[in-house]
Fold:
Amino acid sequence: MARPVLRRVGAAEEPRPRVAHLDRDRRLVEAAQRDPARFEALYRRYLAQVYSYAYYELGNHHDAEDATERTFLSALTNLHRFEERAQPADGEGASTFRVWLFRIARNAVANQRRSERRHPTAPLEAAPLVADPLDVEGRVQARDEAAAAWRAVGRLPGDRRRALVLRFVDEMSTAEIAGVLGRSEGAVRVLIHRALRAVARQLREEGS
Amino acid sequence: MTFAGRDALEVDALRTDRYLESLLAAHERRAADAPSDPDLDPAVRGAATRLGRDLVRLHPSFRFEERLATRLAQVAASMRLPAAAGAEGVTIGLLPPGLPDADVDPARDPADLDDPAGRADRSAPTATQAIPRPILIGGALTSAALSIAGAAWVAWRRSRPPQTRLD
Structure:
């Protein structure tokens, strides 16, 4: 069960401690823990994020769908085991539920990859999404550039690649990525910095 | 790496982190211009800008979304059965079709080549862990036991005439 996180704010002016709701998903999680049918709201909120993570890791829609399905089924049936452990340092708006969900997703993707030994490939279908559909030449160029960027990301070692996807695609904070990857925040910052330098080097070598 | 080198790396990493915060915040408010930081390595800044533009979030097909929503609703409904029928019920986990055998230990296999150090989270459930589909058996057993005990008591009473007469 989620525990309230108490923070004393301005003790002189406000003697009573204020309850800070650190996990933005707390109400939805508590509702789903009381009634599993209410899990749908969490599912709708995080479907695209989990699917995107799986897709960038596995490189094809079929495997990404499998991993996404396993992730949400496992989250639903294990939701009673979830405990919010938000820290004040996580800041307002952080979600420990999202971190927990992505740990499950990470395991699901690892299991999927282990079973197929598949490495990520360029998600070429994604490229047209960012281009103007009426600008054919621009669309081709955008597609090529997106493919080159993904090739550079796809060549990174596992945690560097995951950290970039979680940062750029799922827009997680450094603290959240640290929670998902099981590393310190400082280590994640260095991981991302090094990953960006490697991507820059790759793109320069490709002339892209 | 020397201490000075490590410090410099951490300072650069912190600067990159702050730049990414501002870059992603600019994306969120749909600002046209990327933020600038003259102290940041231009190569890192260029790569960050590029990935911010090219690594898009994807959405699965509507068909997949609705199919999975239906399946989750079915699993949720089966999870509500014990509470509805009686808390004394014992649940037995069954795998829904399409999932591999249960792996009760949530620990990740460190043999995964992408995670040679075995840093996988061990508190989060694995996606292949048993998906319990609860079956209520406790309530039925209790009812059956009560029925058998009742029948035995009636048989015993019939075999023994009352010791006191009412007349």
About this structure: Residues 3-54 of chain B form one domain.
